[in-house]
Design a protein that fits this description.
The protein is built from 16 helices and no strands. The protein has about 400 residues and is mainly α. The longest helix has about 45 residues. The protein is globular. It comes from Alkalihalobacillus alcalophilus ATCC 27647 = CGMCC 1.3604.
Protein backbone atom coordinates (compact mmCIF):
# COMPACT_ATOMS: atom_id res chain seq x y z
CA UNK A 1 0.00 0.00 0.00
CA UNK A 2 2.85 2.34 0.91
CA UNK A 3 4.67 1.52 -2.37
CA UNK A 4 1.49 2.30 -4.30
CA UNK A 5 1.10 5.73 -2.64
CA UNK A 6 4.76 6.57 -3.37
CA UNK A 7 4.25 5.59 -7.00
CA UNK A 8 1.14 7.81 -7.26
CA UNK A 9 3.00 10.73 -5.67
CA UNK A 10 5.91 10.37 -8.10
CA UNK A 11 3.53 10.20 -11.05
CA UNK A 12 1.73 13.34 -9.85
CA UNK A 13 5.09 15.12 -9.37
CA UNK A 14 6.30 14.27 -12.88
CA UNK A 15 2.96 15.29 -14.42
CA UNK A 16 3.30 18.69 -12.72
CA UNK A 17 6.82 19.04 -14.11
CA UNK A 18 5.55 18.22 -17.61
CA UNK A 19 2.77 20.80 -17.32
CA UNK A 20 5.22 23.46 -16.12
CA UNK A 21 7.64 22.63 -18.95
CA UNK A 22 4.84 22.90 -21.51
CA UNK A 23 3.68 26.20 -19.97
CA UNK A 24 7.24 27.57 -20.02
CA UNK A 25 7.66 26.54 -23.66
CA UNK A 26 4.37 28.21 -24.57
CA UNK A 27 5.37 31.43 -22.78
CA UNK A 28 8.76 31.43 -24.49
CA UNK A 29 7.12 31.06 -27.89
CA UNK A 30 4.69 33.87 -27.07
CA UNK A 31 7.48 36.19 -25.94
CA UNK A 32 9.51 35.55 -29.08
CA UNK A 33 6.44 35.79 -31.32
CA UNK A 34 7.40 32.43 -32.85
CA UNK A 35 5.45 29.19 -32.77
CA UNK A 36 6.77 25.79 -33.67
CA UNK A 37 5.78 25.05 -37.27
CA UNK A 38 3.84 21.80 -37.59
CA UNK A 39 5.31 18.94 -39.58
CA UNK A 40 2.55 19.08 -42.19
CA UNK A 41 3.56 22.63 -43.16
CA UNK A 42 7.24 21.82 -43.70
CA UNK A 43 8.78 21.20 -47.13
CA UNK A 44 11.54 18.89 -48.32
CA UNK A 45 15.05 20.38 -48.61
CA UNK A 46 15.27 19.88 -52.40
CA UNK A 47 12.33 22.26 -52.93
CA UNK A 48 14.60 25.11 -51.84
CA UNK A 49 16.22 24.73 -55.28
CA UNK A 50 12.92 25.57 -56.97
CA UNK A 51 12.03 28.40 -54.58
CA UNK A 52 15.32 30.23 -55.11
CA UNK A 53 15.38 29.74 -58.87
CA UNK A 54 11.70 30.62 -59.35
CA UNK A 55 12.11 33.73 -57.22
CA UNK A 56 15.18 34.97 -59.08
CA UNK A 57 14.00 34.47 -62.66
CA UNK A 58 11.26 36.95 -63.59
CA UNK A 59 10.74 40.01 -65.76
CA UNK A 60 14.32 41.12 -65.13
CA UNK A 61 15.70 38.36 -67.35
CA UNK A 62 13.93 39.93 -70.33
CA UNK A 63 15.84 43.22 -70.10
CA UNK A 64 18.89 43.02 -67.82
CA UNK A 65 21.32 42.49 -70.72
CA UNK A 66 21.17 46.09 -71.98
CA UNK A 67 21.83 47.53 -68.51
CA UNK A 68 24.98 45.44 -68.04
CA UNK A 69 26.25 46.03 -71.59
CA UNK A 70 26.16 49.78 -70.92
CA UNK A 71 28.79 49.19 -68.23
CA UNK A 72 30.92 46.37 -69.63
CA UNK A 73 30.08 45.94 -73.32
CA UNK A 74 30.73 42.42 -74.60
CA UNK A 75 32.30 41.49 -71.25
CA UNK A 76 28.81 41.52 -69.74
CA UNK A 77 28.81 37.73 -69.37
CA UNK A 78 31.77 38.01 -66.97
CA UNK A 79 29.80 40.46 -64.80
CA UNK A 80 26.85 38.05 -64.79
CA UNK A 81 29.04 35.20 -63.50
CA UNK A 82 30.64 37.46 -60.87
CA UNK A 83 27.22 38.57 -59.65
CA UNK A 84 26.19 34.91 -59.34
CA UNK A 85 29.26 34.13 -57.23
CA UNK A 86 28.36 37.03 -54.92
CA UNK A 87 24.84 35.63 -54.57
CA UNK A 88 26.18 32.22 -53.50
CA UNK A 89 28.44 33.96 -50.97
CA UNK A 90 25.48 35.90 -49.55
CA UNK A 91 23.41 32.70 -49.26
CA UNK A 92 26.25 31.05 -47.32
CA UNK A 93 26.24 34.03 -44.93
CA UNK A 94 22.47 33.73 -44.52
CA UNK A 95 22.77 30.09 -43.54
CA UNK A 96 25.35 30.98 -40.90
CA UNK A 97 23.11 33.48 -39.11
CA UNK A 98 19.92 31.43 -39.52
CA UNK A 99 21.47 28.19 -38.23
CA UNK A 100 22.95 29.94 -35.20
CA UNK A 101 19.63 31.55 -34.31
CA UNK A 102 17.66 28.42 -35.30
CA UNK A 103 14.93 30.63 -36.74
CA UNK A 104 14.11 33.27 -39.31
CA UNK A 105 15.44 36.81 -39.73
CA UNK A 106 13.04 38.14 -37.08
CA UNK A 107 14.64 35.91 -34.46
CA UNK A 108 18.10 36.97 -35.64
CA UNK A 109 17.17 40.65 -35.35
CA UNK A 110 15.59 40.23 -31.91
CA UNK A 111 18.65 38.43 -30.55
CA UNK A 112 21.03 41.09 -31.86
CA UNK A 113 19.02 44.32 -31.57
CA UNK A 114 16.15 43.62 -29.19
CA UNK A 115 12.41 43.46 -29.76
CA UNK A 116 11.72 47.01 -30.98
CA UNK A 117 14.73 47.76 -33.17
CA UNK A 118 14.74 44.16 -34.40
CA UNK A 119 11.06 44.40 -35.29
CA UNK A 120 11.64 47.66 -37.16
CA UNK A 121 14.49 46.14 -39.19
CA UNK A 122 12.31 43.14 -40.02
CA UNK A 123 9.57 45.46 -41.26
CA UNK A 124 12.11 47.13 -43.56
CA UNK A 125 12.83 43.71 -45.09
CA UNK A 126 9.08 43.12 -45.48
CA UNK A 127 8.82 46.47 -47.29
CA UNK A 128 11.74 45.48 -49.51
CA UNK A 129 10.06 42.22 -50.54
CA UNK A 130 6.70 43.88 -51.17
CA UNK A 131 8.31 46.56 -53.33
CA UNK A 132 9.96 43.73 -55.26
CA UNK A 133 6.50 42.26 -55.92
CA UNK A 134 5.22 45.69 -56.99
CA UNK A 135 8.08 46.30 -59.43
CA UNK A 136 7.66 42.85 -61.00
CA UNK A 137 3.90 43.27 -61.40
CA UNK A 138 4.11 46.79 -62.83
CA UNK A 139 6.91 45.84 -65.24
CA UNK A 140 4.94 42.88 -66.57
CA UNK A 141 1.89 45.11 -67.03
CA UNK A 142 4.02 47.45 -69.13
CA UNK A 143 5.24 44.55 -71.30
CA UNK A 144 1.64 43.50 -71.95
CA UNK A 145 0.71 47.11 -72.77
CA UNK A 146 3.59 47.59 -75.22
CA UNK A 147 3.48 44.21 -76.97
CA UNK A 148 -0.12 43.02 -76.81
CA UNK A 149 -2.82 45.42 -75.52
CA UNK A 150 -1.80 49.03 -76.03
CA UNK A 151 -4.96 50.46 -74.46
CA UNK A 152 -4.87 48.26 -71.36
CA UNK A 153 -5.11 50.32 -68.16
CA UNK A 154 -2.75 49.65 -65.27
CA UNK A 155 -5.53 49.24 -62.75
CA UNK A 156 -7.44 46.82 -64.97
CA UNK A 157 -4.68 44.20 -65.17
CA UNK A 158 -3.76 44.67 -61.49
CA UNK A 159 -7.39 44.26 -60.44
CA UNK A 160 -7.69 41.05 -62.46
CA UNK A 161 -4.46 39.52 -61.14
CA UNK A 162 -4.69 40.44 -57.46
CA UNK A 163 -7.53 37.94 -56.61
CA UNK A 164 -5.39 35.16 -58.06
CA UNK A 165 -2.42 36.07 -55.85
CA UNK A 166 -4.67 36.34 -52.79
CA UNK A 167 -6.08 32.89 -53.51
CA UNK A 168 -2.63 31.32 -53.95
CA UNK A 169 -0.97 32.97 -50.94
CA UNK A 170 -3.94 32.35 -48.63
CA UNK A 171 -3.50 28.65 -49.42
CA UNK A 172 -0.27 28.69 -47.41
CA UNK A 173 3.42 28.35 -48.05
CA UNK A 174 3.20 24.85 -49.53
CA UNK A 175 0.71 26.07 -52.14
CA UNK A 176 3.03 28.91 -53.17
CA UNK A 177 5.96 26.49 -53.39
CA UNK A 178 3.84 24.19 -55.56
CA UNK A 179 3.23 27.10 -57.93
CA UNK A 180 6.98 27.78 -58.11
CA UNK A 181 7.69 24.10 -58.81
CA UNK A 182 5.15 23.90 -61.64
CA UNK A 183 6.33 27.21 -63.07
CA UNK A 184 9.86 25.91 -63.58
CA UNK A 185 8.73 22.60 -65.08
CA UNK A 186 6.38 24.34 -67.54
CA UNK A 187 8.72 27.12 -68.67
CA UNK A 188 12.07 25.30 -68.76
CA UNK A 189 11.53 24.01 -72.36
CA UNK A 190 11.33 27.63 -73.58
CA UNK A 191 15.04 28.38 -73.09
CA UNK A 192 16.48 25.86 -75.61
CA UNK A 193 14.39 27.58 -78.32
CA UNK A 194 16.77 30.55 -78.21
CA UNK A 195 19.44 28.31 -79.75
CA UNK A 196 17.56 28.83 -83.01
CA UNK A 197 18.94 32.40 -83.06
CA UNK A 198 22.51 31.06 -83.37
CA UNK A 199 21.88 30.85 -87.11
CA UNK A 200 22.57 34.60 -87.09
CA UNK A 201 25.27 34.55 -84.39
CA UNK A 202 28.46 36.59 -84.57
CA UNK A 203 30.76 34.62 -82.26
CA UNK A 204 33.64 37.05 -82.62
CA UNK A 205 31.62 39.66 -80.72
CA UNK A 206 32.96 38.46 -77.36
CA UNK A 207 36.63 38.31 -78.34
CA UNK A 208 39.05 39.42 -77.15
CA UNK A 209 37.83 38.59 -73.66
CA UNK A 210 38.08 41.12 -70.83
CA UNK A 211 38.37 44.33 -72.84
CA UNK A 212 37.16 46.39 -69.88
CA UNK A 213 38.81 47.21 -66.57
CA UNK A 214 38.21 45.26 -63.38
CA UNK A 215 36.28 48.19 -61.89
CA UNK A 216 33.96 48.30 -64.92
CA UNK A 217 33.31 44.56 -64.66
CA UNK A 218 32.55 44.94 -60.95
CA UNK A 219 30.18 47.83 -61.69
CA UNK A 220 28.46 45.60 -64.25
CA UNK A 221 28.14 42.87 -61.62
CA UNK A 222 26.55 45.38 -59.27
CA UNK A 223 23.97 46.23 -61.94
CA UNK A 224 23.37 42.51 -62.58
CA UNK A 225 22.56 41.79 -58.93
CA UNK A 226 19.10 43.35 -59.34
CA UNK A 227 18.17 40.52 -61.71
CA UNK A 228 19.25 38.03 -59.03
CA UNK A 229 16.99 39.60 -56.38
CA UNK A 230 14.68 37.20 -54.59
CA UNK A 231 17.10 34.83 -52.88
CA UNK A 232 16.64 37.01 -49.77
CA UNK A 233 13.42 35.04 -49.29
CA UNK A 234 15.54 32.38 -47.57
CA UNK A 235 15.60 34.64 -44.50
CA UNK A 236 11.85 34.08 -44.12
CA UNK A 237 11.16 30.51 -45.24
CA UNK A 238 14.16 28.88 -43.50
CA UNK A 239 12.03 27.58 -40.55
CA UNK A 240 9.76 25.77 -43.04
CA UNK A 241 12.57 23.50 -44.25
CA UNK A 242 12.88 19.91 -43.09
CA UNK A 243 16.43 18.79 -42.34
CA UNK A 244 17.76 22.33 -42.61
CA UNK A 245 21.36 21.15 -42.63
CA UNK A 246 20.68 19.32 -45.93
CA UNK A 247 18.92 22.24 -47.61
CA UNK A 248 21.94 24.49 -48.16
CA UNK A 249 23.31 22.49 -51.08
CA UNK A 250 19.92 22.71 -52.83
CA UNK A 251 19.66 26.44 -52.18
CA UNK A 252 23.17 27.00 -53.52
CA UNK A 253 22.42 24.81 -56.55
CA UNK A 254 19.26 26.82 -57.25
CA UNK A 255 21.25 30.07 -57.27
CA UNK A 256 24.01 28.46 -59.36
CA UNK A 257 21.45 27.24 -61.90
CA UNK A 258 20.12 30.81 -62.18
CA UNK A 259 23.68 32.02 -62.83
CA UNK A 260 24.12 29.36 -65.51
CA UNK A 261 20.83 30.34 -67.16
CA UNK A 262 21.63 34.07 -67.05
CA UNK A 263 25.09 33.46 -68.54
CA UNK A 264 23.53 31.39 -71.34
CA UNK A 265 20.95 34.11 -72.09
CA UNK A 266 23.57 36.87 -71.96
CA UNK A 267 25.82 35.04 -74.42
CA UNK A 268 22.89 34.38 -76.78
CA UNK A 269 22.10 38.12 -76.79
CA UNK A 270 25.76 39.10 -77.24
CA UNK A 271 26.10 36.74 -80.20
CA UNK A 272 22.94 38.06 -81.87
CA UNK A 273 23.05 41.83 -81.24
CA UNK A 274 25.72 44.42 -81.86
CA UNK A 275 26.67 46.49 -78.82
CA UNK A 276 24.80 49.49 -80.23
CA UNK A 277 21.68 47.43 -80.88
CA UNK A 278 21.57 45.88 -77.43
CA UNK A 279 22.00 49.31 -75.81
CA UNK A 280 18.94 50.57 -77.68
CA UNK A 281 16.80 47.48 -77.07
CA UNK A 282 14.80 47.63 -73.84
CA UNK A 283 13.76 43.95 -73.77
CA UNK A 284 16.58 42.17 -75.58
CA UNK A 285 15.47 38.63 -74.75
CA UNK A 286 11.83 39.34 -75.49
CA UNK A 287 12.78 40.71 -78.91
CA UNK A 288 14.52 37.39 -79.67
CA UNK A 289 11.11 35.69 -79.51
CA UNK A 290 10.37 37.41 -82.84
CA UNK A 291 13.28 35.53 -84.43
CA UNK A 292 11.88 32.13 -83.42
CA UNK A 293 9.67 30.81 -86.21
CA UNK A 294 7.64 27.66 -86.82
CA UNK A 295 5.81 26.67 -90.05
CA UNK A 296 2.54 26.32 -88.13
CA UNK A 297 2.91 29.37 -85.88
CA UNK A 298 3.43 33.11 -86.32
CA UNK A 299 4.14 35.85 -83.77
CA UNK A 300 5.75 33.51 -81.26
CA UNK A 301 6.41 36.52 -79.00
CA UNK A 302 2.72 36.51 -78.03
CA UNK A 303 3.11 32.99 -76.71
CA UNK A 304 6.34 33.99 -74.98
CA UNK A 305 4.67 36.90 -73.18
CA UNK A 306 1.77 34.67 -72.12
CA UNK A 307 4.08 31.94 -70.86
CA UNK A 308 6.11 34.54 -68.98
CA UNK A 309 3.12 35.18 -66.75
CA UNK A 310 3.74 31.67 -65.43
CA UNK A 311 7.33 32.73 -64.71
CA UNK A 312 6.27 35.97 -63.01
CA UNK A 313 3.45 34.52 -60.89
CA UNK A 314 5.70 32.70 -58.35
CA UNK A 315 7.88 35.85 -58.04
CA UNK A 316 4.95 37.93 -56.91
CA UNK A 317 3.26 35.21 -54.83
CA UNK A 318 6.43 34.30 -52.91
CA UNK A 319 7.26 37.96 -52.24
CA UNK A 320 3.72 38.66 -51.00
CA UNK A 321 3.77 35.58 -48.78
CA UNK A 322 7.13 36.53 -47.24
CA UNK A 323 6.15 40.17 -46.71
CA UNK A 324 2.82 39.26 -45.11
CA UNK A 325 4.45 36.65 -42.86
CA UNK A 326 7.03 39.14 -41.57
CA UNK A 327 4.30 41.68 -40.78
CA UNK A 328 2.25 38.95 -39.11
CA UNK A 329 5.21 37.86 -36.95
CA UNK A 330 6.20 41.38 -35.92
CA UNK A 331 2.70 42.53 -34.91
CA UNK A 332 1.20 39.09 -34.02
CA UNK A 333 -1.65 39.58 -36.51
CA UNK A 334 -3.71 37.17 -38.56
CA UNK A 335 -1.82 36.63 -41.82
CA UNK A 336 -5.00 36.55 -43.92
CA UNK A 337 -5.97 40.01 -42.65
CA UNK A 338 -2.48 41.31 -43.41
CA UNK A 339 -2.68 39.70 -46.84
CA UNK A 340 -5.90 41.54 -47.72
CA UNK A 341 -4.31 44.91 -46.93
CA UNK A 342 -1.15 44.04 -48.87
CA UNK A 343 -2.92 42.96 -52.08
CA UNK A 344 -5.07 46.11 -52.01
CA UNK A 345 -1.96 48.29 -51.60
CA UNK A 346 -0.21 46.32 -54.34
CA UNK A 347 -3.11 46.88 -56.72
CA UNK A 348 -3.18 50.59 -55.90
CA UNK A 349 0.58 50.92 -56.27
CA UNK A 350 0.59 49.24 -59.69
CA UNK A 351 -2.19 51.56 -60.85
CA UNK A 352 -0.47 54.72 -59.58
CA UNK A 353 2.91 54.20 -61.28
CA UNK A 354 2.23 55.97 -64.59
CA UNK A 355 5.22 55.57 -66.93
CA UNK A 356 8.33 53.53 -67.60
CA UNK A 357 10.54 56.36 -66.32
CA UNK A 358 8.78 56.11 -62.96
CA UNK A 359 9.31 52.33 -62.93
CA UNK A 360 13.00 52.81 -63.75
CA UNK A 361 13.41 55.42 -61.00
CA UNK A 362 11.89 53.09 -58.38
CA UNK A 363 13.85 50.10 -59.68
CA UNK A 364 17.11 52.09 -59.57
CA UNK A 365 16.65 52.95 -55.88
CA UNK A 366 15.53 49.39 -55.17
CA UNK A 367 18.62 48.03 -56.91
CA UNK A 368 20.93 50.08 -54.69
CA UNK A 369 19.11 49.04 -51.52
CA UNK A 370 19.05 45.38 -52.57
CA UNK A 371 22.77 45.35 -53.31
CA UNK A 372 23.82 46.76 -49.93
CA UNK A 373 21.27 44.63 -48.09
CA UNK A 374 22.42 41.32 -49.60
CA UNK A 375 26.16 41.93 -49.89
CA UNK A 376 26.93 44.35 -47.04
CA UNK A 377 24.23 44.04 -44.36
CA UNK A 378 24.06 40.23 -44.33
CA UNK A 379 27.87 39.79 -43.90
CA UNK A 380 27.68 42.51 -41.22
CA UNK A 381 25.07 40.42 -39.36
CA UNK A 382 27.42 37.41 -39.51
CA UNK A 383 30.21 39.46 -37.93
CA UNK A 384 27.94 41.05 -35.30
CA UNK A 385 26.34 37.73 -34.41
CA UNK A 386 29.79 36.13 -34.00
CA UNK A 387 30.84 38.88 -31.57
CA UNK A 388 27.58 38.77 -29.58
CA UNK A 389 27.59 34.97 -29.28
CA UNK A 390 31.24 35.02 -28.22
CA UNK A 391 30.52 37.47 -25.40
CA UNK A 392 27.46 35.48 -24.32
CA UNK A 393 29.54 32.31 -24.19
CA UNK A 394 32.19 34.14 -22.17
CA UNK A 395 29.61 35.39 -19.67
CA UNK A 396 28.19 31.87 -19.31
CA UNK A 397 31.64 30.42 -18.60
CA UNK A 398 32.35 33.11 -15.98
CA UNK A 399 29.01 32.45 -14.27
CA UNK A 400 29.66 28.70 -14.27
CA UNK A 401 33.07 29.26 -12.67
CA UNK A 402 31.71 31.30 -9.73
Amino acid sequence: MKTKSVFISCSYFFSLLSEQAALFKKRSETMSGEKVIKEKYLISPFLSFFIIHAMQVGVGVLSFQSEIVKETGYDAWISVILAGVLVNFSIACMYIILKRADGDIIKVHQELFGKWIGGFLSLLIATFLLFLALIILRTYIEIVQVWVFEDLQNWCFALLSIPFFYYVVSGGFRTVVGLAFLSILITLPIYPLFLMTLEFAQYNNIVPVWKHSVLEVIEGAKVATFSYSGFELLLVYFPFLKHKELSQKWTQLGAAFTTLLYTYITLICLFFYSEEQINKTIWALLTLFKVIEFPFLERFEYIGITVWMIVVAPNIALAIWAGSRLVKRVFSLNQRHVLIVIVILLCGGAALIPTRSAIDAIASVFNQIGFYFAFVYIPFLVLLQTIVYKFKKGDTNETAGM
